[in-house]
Amino acid sequence: AMFLLGLPFTCNGGIHMFNLFNASAPSWNLLLFALLEVTLVSWVYGIETFMDNIAEMGIQLKPMVKLYWKICWKYTTPLVLLVLLVLSWVTFGQVGYNGVPYPVWVQIMGYLITGSTIIALPIVAVARIKDIYHQSTPTMDTLVRPTAQWGPSKEGSVISLVP
C-alpha cells in the first residue's frame, strides 16, 4: 500500500506533491500536539505526580534541577509552544515552487493534509469519553487520573531485555 501511495512522487509532478507534503505535514499540527502533551502532563496529570514518577524510575534530581524542569514544563515550554503556534498560523503562507504559488485548490489540499493528522485526536477523545461515561459515574476526573493499578512494577515481575 505504501509503495502505491509513493508512486505519484516519482512521476513528473512528483516534486510538486513532495513540496506540498513537505510544507503541509510538519506544520502547526506538531506544535499543537506538543502543546497539548506538555499542558496535559504538567497541568492536568500534575507536575508533582510526574516528578514522583521520575523518582520511581530511580532518577534522582537535585532540588535546583527539579525546580528548573518544573518551571520549564509548567510555564516556559507551553508559552514558547503557544507563541510558535500562533506565529505559524499568522505566517501560514502560500505554498509554491520556484517562486510560483500553487492554485487555491492545491493550497486547500495542503490544509487537508495538515488537518488529517489531527482529526483522530477529537474522534478518539469523544469515543473514550463515551466509553467512560457509559461504564461509570460521569466524571472527567476518571479520564485524566491514573488508575489504582498504575505504579512501579513488583520486584521480579519485570522481564529484562539485557542479558
If you had to describe this structure to a student in words, what would you say it looks like?
This protein is mostly helical and about 160 residues long. The protein is about 65% helix and about 0% strand. The protein contains 7 helices and 2 strands; from the N terminus they run H-H-H-H-E-E-H-H-H. It has helices at about 1-5, 15-25, 30-55, 65-90, 105-120, 120-135, 140-145; strands at about 95, 100. Strands 1-2 form a two-stranded antiparallel ribbon. A hairpin with a 2-residue loop joins strand 1 (about 95) and strand 2. Helix 2 (about 15-25) crosses helix 5 and helix 3 (about 30-55) packs antiparallel against helix 4 (about 65-90). The protein is elongated and about 60 Å long.
What layout of secondary structure does this protein have?
Layout: H1 2-6, H2 14-24, H3 28-56, H4 63-90, E1 96-97, E2 100-101, H5 104-118, H6 120-135, H7 141-144
What's a concise summary of this model?
With 163 residues, the protein is mostly helical. The protein has seven helices and two strands; from the N terminus they run ααααββααα.
Q: Which structural class matches the secondary elements?
A: mainly alpha
What is the CA-atom radius of gyration, in angstroms?
Answer: 22 Å
Into which percent range does the helicity of residues fall? 55-70%
Shape: elongated
Strand content range: under 5%
Q: Compute the number of strand runs.
A: 2
First-to-last CA distance: 38 Å
| Main beta-sheet annotation | 2 strands, antiparallel
